[in-house]
Amino acid sequence: MDAYNFKTYLAYIFYPPLYVAGPIMTFQDYASQLSSQKRPRARYVVFYAARLVAALLVLELMTHTLYFNGIAKQRVWRRWPEGFSVFDIGITGYWVLNFMWLKFLVIWRFFRCWALVEGTDPPENMLRCVNNNYDAEGFWRGWHASFNRWLVRYLYIPLGGARRRALNMWVIFTFVALWHDLEWRLLGWAWLTCLAFVPELAAKWAVRQPWAAGLRRSPWFRHLAAAAAAANIVALMAANLLGFVTGADGLPPGLPRRGGCDVLLQRADHVCHPRP
After folding, report:
1. What's this model's pTM, rounded to 2 decimal places?
2. Would residue 1 count as lying in a domain?
3. Which residues cross the membrane (predicted)?
């Protein structure tokens, strides 16, 4: 209990590795680690730093070869005379989602690596790859995991927890949207994400019922789970399109039906690197 004092609290508030953009660490966890003699193993820290460098190199390669984030930021489809096809817009949303995951992975792991070198072990924020998810619930547990823990402790449980999951998720995602910024497109992202949760919660409830025991033992169940995983990625893409690509005004009208990934990259290269 000696570590629970005002001096330690000030050190916790202004702890440099986590002050700017690091993972969220509770005061109790910080104080207990500060008073403990246990430190992260040097081998683990070196390996973690090597993984950080590898992720940074992949992000740098992605930034210079895949222009989808620039397409989204500049809204290239509005300036391109022929417009973009639905596939063009969809693949843009998919790669922007991957870019965002990798970008935040590098940012959060940099500050966590800094804390590890200093001797503190904060929680990991990105627990799994964005494409390695089988449901939206698991995705949000692994994306910004420390913030997810904070939401569970201070919003989800006080609102009723699992007993009112179908209702309190609307409050939580609305709060998360407002926490990001006060924009209608982010509110649309939050509510579209909640809509994607509804069939998932219904399917999980149905599978847990006794009459679905035969389905769970069926060899086809794994294929149904894989199809649900694909639907989950599509739902995340749709929400990401609204929140971070096209905005609340939605997709541009009159999209042509032709086009593809190669054509999209050529268009982006033409816009981002105009020839004299």
Report:
1. 0.80
2. no
3. 12-32, 44-63, 83-102, 224-245
